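Researcher: I'd like a candidate sequence for this fold, 295 residues long. If you have to choose between options at a position, lean toward the conservative one.
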């Protein structure tokens, strides 16, 4: 007997490619209208391999859609004060529409201080308190990129969130917390947020029509924790090393995909699910920042 897939695999690569095509088209229109082409600046501190890879993907994406970009690299010995001064410059640079400071930063630099120094109108990662708070507005400024990408997946796969029981596992400032607010404010869902101190996690995850997991612990979500027919979005991305993997490592989500997928109506893979959507959101935010600044 041939096993037939009963679930739909949410293809983040395909949706991100569609979004990039739409943005490319818009860049062409902006040029024809004599308007400003979006310009993204990227600040990278230190030489962390994973950060370099993420930044390379962002530069590649800018090239694909026709954005201008500037890479700014600093040694990991740079002081917080010096980095803040560089951020001041980019804040003031009228040619730069949006910029990001790639995380993580060296331990002597305060992520919060750096993030809060970015002008909210240029904060295309959506990390500042202003943009976090603007989620509850009817017309948010720039949405936090990864949760924005998850909401876009719901939209483009026609996954209804209104009135659904959504459980978000992970309550971080970058993913779980903003996503839960977006699901309440824009998705009209009934939202439960779980975190490290949640007692009996499975009790909550089993109630979920839509389960989003953003923790960073491979295998955390097993088949017995998921309701039949649930939509499962796995944000978790952990680099697991081992000689069995082609490049010596593999990226693993938080969900035991093989066991969980047959119970789902929709599920994201890792890699190829939420990951590509984060970059697509960054491009969408950069385009929005440009158009807001140059109406
Ligand atoms: P984070 O800041 O470490 O937050 C993890 C969250 O999970 C925290 O809220 C933590 O609770 C909670 N948690 C820890 N152990 C738990 C457990 N056993 N049960 C339930 N909750 C638990 O990480 P993050 O930045 O949100 O990222 C989460 C994952 O998503 C990581 O794997 C990261 O690599 C990935 N990620 C992927 C993308 C992408 O584009 N695909 C983007 C961003 C992040 P406490 O708050 O109580 O500590």
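Model: Candidate sequence:
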């Amino acid at each position: 007997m041939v096993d037939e897939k009963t679930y739909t695999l949410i293809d983040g690569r395909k949706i991100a490619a569609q979004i990039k095509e739409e943005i490319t088209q818009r860049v062409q229109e902006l040029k024809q209208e004599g308007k400003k082409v979006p310009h993204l600046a990227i600040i990278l501190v230190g030489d962390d391999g994973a950060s370099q890879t993420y930044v390379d993907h962002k530069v590649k994406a800018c090239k694909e859609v026709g954005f201008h970009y500037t890479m700014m690299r600093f040694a990991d010995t740079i002081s917080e004060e010096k980095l803040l001064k560089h951020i001041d410059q980019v804040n003031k640079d009228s040619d730069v529409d949006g910029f990001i400071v790639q995380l993580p930063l060296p331990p002597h630099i305060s992520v919060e201080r750096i993030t809060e120094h970015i002008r909210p109108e240029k904060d295309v990662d959506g990390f500042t308190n202003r943009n976090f708070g603007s989620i509850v507005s009817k017309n948010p400024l720039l949405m936090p990129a990864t949760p924005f990408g998850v909401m876009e997946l719901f939209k483009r796969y026609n996954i209804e969130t209104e009135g659904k029981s959504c459980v978000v596992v992970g309550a971080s400032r970058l993913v779980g917390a903003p996503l839960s607010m977006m699901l309440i404010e824009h998705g009209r869902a009934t939202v439960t947020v779980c975190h490290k101190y949640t007692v009996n996690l499975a009790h909550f995850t089993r109630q979920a029509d839509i389960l989003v997991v953003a923790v960073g612990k491979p295998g955390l979500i097993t088949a017995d924790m998921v309701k039949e027919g649930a939509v499962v979005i796995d944000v978790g991305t952990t680099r697991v090393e081992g000689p069995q993997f082609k490049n010596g490592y593999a990226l693993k989500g938080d969900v035991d995909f093989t066991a969980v997928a047959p119970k789902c109506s929709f599920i994201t893979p890792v890699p190829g699910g939420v990951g590509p959507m984060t970059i697509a959101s960054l491009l969408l935010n950069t385009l929005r920042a440009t158009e807001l600044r140059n109406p």
